[in-house]
Amino acid sequence: MQLRSEATRQKILSSASRLFSLNGYDGTGVAEICEAAEVSKGAFYHHFPSKQDVFLNILNDWLDQLSSQMQKARLATPNVPEGLIAMSALTDQVFQMSKNHYSLFFEFWIQAMRHPEIWQTAIAPYHRFQTWLEAILQSGIDEGSLDPSISPDVTSRILIAMVLGQLLQAFFDPIGAAWGEVTKSGIKTMVNGFSKKPI
Amino acid sequence: MQLRSEATRQKILSSASRLFSLNGYDGTGVAEICEAAEVSKGAFYHHFPSKQDVFLNILNDWLDQLSSQMQKARLATPNVPEGLIAMSALTDQVFQMSKNHYSLFFEFWIQAMRHPEIWQTAIAPYHRFQTWLEAILQSGIDEGSLDPSISPDVTSRILIAMVLGQLLQAFFDPIGAAWGEVTKSGIKTMVNGFSKKPI
Prior knowledge:
Structural class of chain A: mainly alpha
Oligomer: homodimer
C-alpha cells in the first residue's frame, strides 16, 4: 500500500512536470494533471494540498537528487579541489535532467517572482544548497587545499552562477557549444584560480 | 519632426517595457501599450510592425547600450586582462538596468522558447555579443597577455555565464549578497586564471 502510494505520488509529479513544461504553470490545471496521471482528484489531494505544492515538490526532488550525487562525488575524492572538479562532471547530468524541463526552470523563476509564497518556500532549498557548497569550500581552506584568502560565501555563489549561466545559454543556443564541457572547463579554471596548487 | 518621432518611439518602448515586466508579454496588448504611451495605434504601427517587434527592439537597445559601454571600458585600458576587469565593473550597471526588468528578462527566455521566430531574431544579438567578446579574448592571446592555451570561444561563453548566473541569483535572492561585487570577484578570479601574469 505504501509502495502504491509512492507510485501514485511519482505519477502525479512526472505528469505535472511534463504539463508545466508544455503549457506553463498557469496553463495547467489540477484536472489535467489528474487526467494525464490517471488518478482521481481525491488521490491527488491526498498527496498534495495544491498545484503549487506539486510545483515545489518537483523542484525539491530535483535539488535533493542533485545534492546527493554531488555529495557522493565529493566523498570519492581525496580533497576539496578534486571534489569540485568531480562535482562539475555532474553538470552534464544536470543538463540532461534539465533538457526537457527548461520551460519549467523558467516558469519557476517567473512564478517565484509573481507569488511571494512560492518564493519563500522555493528559496529554502536554494539556501540549503548554497550553504552546503559554502561549507565544502570552508573545509577546503581548513584542510589547506584552498587559498585561505577566498570568501567561501562569495565563491559558492560564483560557482552556482557558472552553472546557472551555462544552463541559460544552453537553453537559448543548444547547438552553439558543448555546454557540459564548457561548464567543466569554467569550473576548472575557477578551481585552479583558488587552489593552493594547480590540479 | 525627426526628434519628435524618436521621442514617440522611446515612449512606446519604455511603456511596453514596463507593461511586459508587470503583466507579462502575453498579458500585454498593443492597445494597452498605446494607452500607457499616450500614442495612437497609427503612431504605434508607424514605428513597429508588431508587439513582437517592440519586444525585440527593447532587447536590442539594451544589448547595444551595454556593448558600447564595454567597448569604451576596453579601450580605456592598456591590455585585455585589465580591459576585462574594467568591463566587469559595468556589471553593477547591468544589475541596475535589469533590476526593474527581471520579469522581462525571463519573459524573453520563455517567449524565445515558445516562438521560434522570436528565437531566431533574438539569437542574433547574443551571437554578435559572444563573437565580439571572443575577438577581444583572441586579441589578448595575440598581444601576449592571455594564456595561448585557452579557447576564446569557450572562455567567452564562460564569462557570459558568470554574469547571467549572477543575474539569476540576484533576482531570486536580492538581499542574499552584494551581487555586483560577487560578479566582479568571479570575473577577476577567472581572468587571473587565464592571464599570463596576475593582475
